[in-house]
Each structure stands twice: as structure tokens, then as C-alpha cells.
Design a protein that fits this description.
Structural class: mainly alpha
CATH topology: Arp2/3 complex 21 kDa subunit ARPC3
Helix content: over 70%
Shape: globular
Largest sheet: none
Oligomer: single chain
Low-confidence stretches: 1-13, 190-208
Order of helices and strands: HHHHHHH
Number of helices: 7
CATH architecture: Orthogonal Bundle
Radius of gyration: 18 Å
Length: 208
């Protein structure tokens, strides 16, 4: 989490409350679900992956995993594309949780970089590509097992959708990670003491 300082130069340490954590997870999960429904007319273009990734990125892997699990459990049972199929649904839930955890790990790695550093864009793009590829491989494998179709056939048939999924997520991860993190910093989201997360601005780095 972002650590801010008050006017006296002391680090602010807001109260830790279960209520705040529950509310935070609920809001982020709702945004992930709502994003999926908003883009449900576009096959394999979705917002849940980037929302879960950002949840972990900003608030740590535990929150990322919780948001991913809650969002996908709910969405899988009320999926506009069809009924819940256990092997495929469980694969989707597991992969989404993994995305939240990786988001938390990457957030810690980027915490000391200046916002102007190109890695704020390049690393999220790279992870967007890799995580989406992992997601599609696992879910396609689950589809293959469920319906008894050779895995290679599933991959070939689903290749256009996989390309759309990877490209759209790479763009979303790259464009949203830095500005959302910057906004969280300026909005003083450190009232959620889920992780000590210090981000230095260029001015702070200059006088460090």
C-alpha cells in the first residue's frame, strides 16, 4: 500500500478494520464483474483480468486473490455466455486468482520506480500478455477435457479469440496500471493499511 506523510513528516497509520477490508474487496469485485457484463457483447474482451490485477497491484496479493475469487465465482454462476461447467469454471476461477496474486508481486517490484520509468508501461504489458496466454491455455485445456476434443484442435479453433484476448488485455494492462496507481497515490488510499507500499515521485527521487 502507499505510505504517505502528514504535514509534520510523520507516516500516516490509519486504523486497520475488518469493515474497510471487506468493503474494499466488495467494491473491487463488483467493478470486475460489472466490467465483464459491460463488455459481454465483445467475445474475449473483458475488464475483470485487469481489475483483479490492479487489486493485487495496489493492495497486495491477498486482496488480489480475494477479489479474483469472489468476482469469478459470482460471474461464473451468472455468465451471459452460458451455464456453469465445473471443469471450465474452476479453471477460470483459479486463473483469475493467480492473476491477482501476480499483480501483488509485480506491484511490490515496481513500488520504488519513478512514474516516468518506461517499466511502468512495459512490465504491465508483458505480464498482461503472459497472464492472458496462461489463462487461455489452462481454460482451453479444461474445455478439451470436458468435451473430449483434442487439445491442439481446441487451440487452433480458439486461436482468433486468444489473439483478441491477448491484444486487448496487453493494451488495458499497459494503459491503466500507471494512471490508476498514480490516482490511488494522490487520493491517499493509504487509509487501507493492507500493505506498506512506497512510491517515489521524480521530485522525491531528486532530493533523496
Amino acid at each position: 500500500m502507499i505510505t504517505l506523510k502528514d504535514n509534520g513528516g510523520r507516516s500516516s497509520k490509519p486504523k486497520r478494520t475488518v469493515t474497510i477490508r471487506v468493503a474494499l474487496v466488495a467494491v473491487l469485485a463488483a467493478l470486475a464483474i460489472g466490467g465483464n457484463y459491460a463488455l459481454s457483447a465483445l467475445p474475449n474482451v473483458e475488464l475483470s483480468s485487469v481489475m483483479v490485477f490492479l487489486s493485487g497491484f495496489l493492495f497486495g496479493p491477498v486482496i488480489g486473490a480475494l477479489v479474483g475469487s469472489i468476482a469469478m465465482i459470482i460471474y461464473q454462476y451468472w455468465n451471459p455466455w452460458g451455464a456453469f461447467i465445473p471443469p471450465i469454471g474452476l479453471a477460470v476461477i483459479g486463473c483469475t486468482i493467480f492473476i491477482g496474486v501476480i499483480g501483488g508481486i509485480l506491484g511490490k517490484a515496481l513500488q520504488r520506480l519513478d512514474y516516468s520509468d518506461s517499466r511502468w508501461f512495459l512490465l504491465p504489458v508483458l505480464f498482461g500478455i503472459l497472464l492472458t496466454l496462461f489463462f487461455d491455455l489452462v481454460t482451453n485445456f479444461a474445455y478439451s477435457i470436458t468435451f473430449g476434443i483434442p487439445f491442439i484442435v481446441v487451440l487452433i479453433i480458439g486461436l482468433p479469440f486468444t489473439i483478441v484476448h491477448i491484444v486487448s488485455n496487453a493494451i488495458l494492462f499497459g494503459l491503466l496500471t500507471q494512471p490508476v496507481t498514480r490516482a490511488a497515490h494522490h487520493l491517499q488510499w493509504s487509509q487501507f493499511p493492507l500493505r506498506q507500499h512506497t512510491i517515489k515521485t521524480k521530485k522525491e527521487n531528486t532530493f533523496a
